[in-house]
Structures are given as C-alpha cells and as structure tokens.
Specification:
single chain, Rossmann fold, 2 domains, four-stranded parallel beta sheet, 9 strands, Asp/Orn_carbamoyltranf_P-bd, EC 2.1.3.2, Asp/Orn_carbamoylTrfase, transferase, Aspartate carbamoyltransferase
Length: 317
C-alpha cells in the first residue's frame, strides 16, 4: 500500500505473492536510490529490530544488520543457540516474547516451511515479520536483490531469457524468483537433475538441458547444491554434477557477451561454477551481495512506513 505521504508501506514481508508488481518495483527503485546515495549510519532511531536466525547465514543475516544500522535502528542481539528454544520454547512463543518487550520488526530465518503463517495471523503479536528464508519455501529479500541486479543490467524484465539451474526442489530462491520473473514477463528455463525437478516448476517455464539453451540466455542463475537437505540420498559426485549441470569454461564462452551469471551464494566452487568464473567479467555474484544491503534497507523502510502510519492513525482517532 501507499501511505498518506506517498511512500510504500508494508506490514510484513513473507512471500513474493503478497506483493504487487508496483510494490516490487517501488522496492527495487528505493533500493537503487539508497545505492546511489549510499548513506552511512543515520542518527539512532527509536525502533528495535531483532534478527532471529535459526539456520546458518552470512549474507542475509549480516546484510540485514548492516541495513538496520545504516538506517539507524536499534539492533537487538538474538542467538538461537543460547535462547529459550533450547528449553523447548516454540517459535511462536519466542516471537510473542519479542513483541511483548517492544521489538518492532523480527527478521526470521527458520527451517520450517511457512513458519510465518501463525505469527502474522496472531492478534497478540504486534511485531512486523520479515521472512529471511523459510525451509524450502521462499526467500523474498533474496528475490528482490536478484530483481534489482537484473534490472540494473537490462532496465526491464519483459522477454528476458532466464535459466534457473541447480537444486530446484530445495531452493527457496528458485521458488521466489520464478513467481516474480514470470509475472514480470521473463521467459524461464529450469535446469536440474530429474530428481530435483518437480511439477510445480512446469507452470512457470520449461525443463531443459543447459547445453540446449546456453547461447540464448540473458541470465544464468545458478543455485547452490544444498547438501544439508539431501539426507539419505545417493552419494553425490561433484565432478559429475559440474560436467552435466555446472558452468564450465566451455559453457561460459558460449554465453552471449551481454549475458550475466548470478548465484545466491555461498558458492560450491568447482561444482555449480568453475572456481575462477565466480569473479569473471560476466559474473554479477559480488554485485548481488552488494545489492542485498540496499534492498534490505528498502524493505525495512517500507515496514517502518507502515508502522509509523498506524501510529499516526491511532493518534488521530
């Protein structure tokens, strides 16, 4: 929604489906403005933000923290390993506690798919929820930084040929991106071993072999092989995967001069992509990480716009 000051305002950000195209582009454009002005830490504000990560993370966790500190919010430490979760406390009760002590925004990564549904439906929890990744569900802030990176490169999405290659069935990045890229007019291809491709992807694009489309691509979006989610699966061969599905030097040379390579990271070097291609001229992997800070600033900005508008509405009653 747009508030009375004409600014984007969001109560929560948990999935990409809840955003309109206009809201997506407003977030991307606001992130671009933050990138252009590159503001350093602003004077301390009154709002509190807690980053609640129940799975390991470097890029998402720390870029949210940098974004929060640049915007001047008070960042509350939370360490799942030393919290009451170890005493059997549920996620709901942990967030209920955070809300009760005055945390305005909870940025949460959790291994449970759609963990946020119970939280945002609660009339008691007043904190806004930002999904930093749920199980094998979605990763909206990663999707938005990916969209920003593509938009910076091409200035549009309509008609772009984009391949998403790798561990599709376990990738929240793939699921968030396919929804928005399809809606914004991109032509999608999915590349993965048969056991990592499910019917849900057929609604959004074609299941193809990388070698059949590589010369046509504008964007090759590689995904990390998520070894930690392949419990009980057959032994994985990194060399075989790289040969059949990875970006090798031979495939890199077949990409168009204008094509770009993306990866949400962390990268399994020599598996999804040959080691020295991570920082190659066509790679935008480092730029994605940079854009993550500015996108997360835009997300927090929209969340706080909503909360401030709610406060004004209450005061004016």
């Amino acid at each position: 929604m747009i508030n009375q000051d004409g600014k984007l305002a969001l109560q929560h950000l948990v999935t990409m489906e809840t955003l309109s195209n206009e809201e997506v582009m407003a977030l991307v454009e606001n992130a671009q403005e933050y990138k252009k002005t590159n503001p350093s830490a602003q004077s301390l504000k009154e709002e509190f933000v807690a980053n609640m990560f129940f799975e390991s993370s470097t890029r998402t966790h720390k870029s949210f923290e940098v974004a929060e500190r640049r915007l001047g919010y008070k960042v509350v430490d939370f360490d799942a390993s030393t919290s009451s979760v170890n005493k059997g406390e549920t996620l709901y009760d942990t967030v209920l506690t955070m809300s009760a002590i005055g945390i305005d925004v909870c940025v949460i990564r959790h291994p449970q798919d759609s963990y946020y549904e119970e939280l945002i439906a609660s009339p008691t929890i007043k904190s806004s929820i930002v999904n930093g990744g749920d199980g094998s569900g979605q990763h909206p802030s990663q999707c938005l930084l990916d969209l920003m990176t593509i938009y910076e490169e091409f200035g549009h999405f309509d008609g772009l040929k984009i391949a998403i290659a790798g561990d599709l069935s376990h990738s929240r990045v793939a699921k968030s991106n396919m929804i928005m890229l399809k809606r914004l007019g991109a032509e999608l291809y999915f590349i993965a071993p048969d056991e990592w491709h499910t019917d849900e992807f057929d609604e959004y694009g074609k299941h193809v072999q990388l070698d059949d489309v590589i010369e046509e691509l504008d964007v090759l979006m590689l995904l990390r092989v998520q070894h930690e989610r392949h419990h009980g699966s057959e032994e994985f061969s990194e060399a075989k995967y790289n040969k059949e599905f990875g970006l090798t030097h031979e495939r890199y040379d077949r990409l168009k001069d204008t094509a770009i390579i993306m990866h949400p990271a962390p990268v399994n070097r020599g598996v999804e992509i040959d080691d020295d291609l991570v920082e190659s001229p066509k790679s935008r992997i480092v730029e994605q990480m940079t854009n993550g800070v500015y996108v997360r600033m835009a997300i927090l900005d929209a969340i706080m716009n909503y909360r401030n508008q709610q406060k004004l509405d209450e005061e004016n009653k």
